[in-house]
Amino acid sequence: MNSLADIDFPALIKAKKSQGGYFPSPSSWNDEVLYFLLLDRFSNGHETAENLFHASDAGNAVQNDSDAQHWRNAGGNWCGGDFKGLMDKIPYLKDLGITAIWISPIFKQIKNSNSYHGYGIQDFLETDPDHFGTKEEFKLLVEKA
């Protein structure tokens, strides 16, 4: 697919209807609890009880100037959050009372760019498989959400 004109929308709609239809947007967003997240900063899907942040970790991230510099440098690079990580956290978000998720752009990013925020878009028709995951993984995320 090279452009939006390549999408056969009638066939797409027919196929989706045969699978039970679309999940409609609410007529009013007043009662929705929206959670916005930068996908790269949220979760990478490889977390274990050992590498999660715990309350006992508070205050121990920066002990000296070298730690502080490392912390600042890490904030400007990719952290690895992806579709799988978000999918794994859907139950957590549900427990918080979240009813709608708004994620940062997931499109294919310009190569060799530190646009972890998703706004360095190279291709609006592709997900960024190197950072966020494949279209198929995104579809699974939407279905789970």
Describe the protein.
The protein has 145 residues and is α+β, with helices and mostly antiparallel strands. Helix content is 32%, strand content 12%. The chain has 6 helices and 4 strands, in the order H-E-H-H-H-H-E-E-E-H. The strands form 2 sheets. Strands 1-2 form a two-stranded parallel sheet. A two-stranded antiparallel ribbon has the order 3-4. The longest helix is centred in the first third of the chain and has 10 residues, at 9-18.
Helix content: 25-40%
Mean of the pLDDT scores?
85
Number of distinct beta strands: 4
- What about the largest sheet? 2 strands, parallel
Strand content: 5-15%
**What order do the helices and strands follow?**
HEHHHHEEEH
Computed Rg: 18 Å
Structural class: alpha+beta
- Name the strands of the widest sheet in spatial order: 1-2
Principal-axis shape: globular
* Number of alpha- plus pi-helical segments: 6
- Distance N terminus to C terminus? 26 Å
Low-pLDDT ranges: none
